[in-house]
Design a protein that fits this description.
Layout lengths: L23 E6 L2 E5 L9 E2 L3 E4 L8 H5 L6 E4 L4 H5 L14 E4 L11 H5 L5 E3 L3
Antiparallel strand pairs: 1-2, 2-3, 3-4, 4-7, 5-6
The structure holds FE3-S4 cluster (F3S) (2 copies) and zinc ion.
Length: about 130
Amino acid sequence: MGEAPVTGNVRKLIDDPSFPNQWQVKGEHLGHKLLWKDGESKEYGVHGTMVGTDFDICIADGICITVCPTNVFDRMDIPSEQEKMDKGTPNDSGKALLAIWKADPAREQDCIFCRACEIQCPVQAIKITEP
Ligand code: F3S
Ligand code: F3S
Ligand code: ZN
């Protein structure tokens, strides 16, 4: 597999001023919300509100899990993504291929807003919003 193609649809959750307040609530997962924006979200949308993690952008880099001092994230496997990865489908940031797991902010209520995850995520999939 060669370099990931860069598409025209490059986006970053961190740069979206409408997140989270103007995004639709589509459901809940393990006590955090699932948020969605028509025309932006493609398939999974964003898990979490304070620690919003865009599953359509996440490439399973994992640095967020490593650096979080309060263990907010869990790795969440999505095996059905494998087929898309095999085809070389890029993520919504256009920077890299999709991944078969995502960082789920399972304990976002434990976040102390250090922003280490937000700063270090290579594709800006995370946006921190203090309540
Ligand atoms: Fe952890 Fe990110 Fe909050 S690193 S403490 S989830 S700002
Ligand atoms: Fe995903 Fe970024 Fe974490 S790519 S695994 S949200 S560091
Ligand atoms: Zn979740």
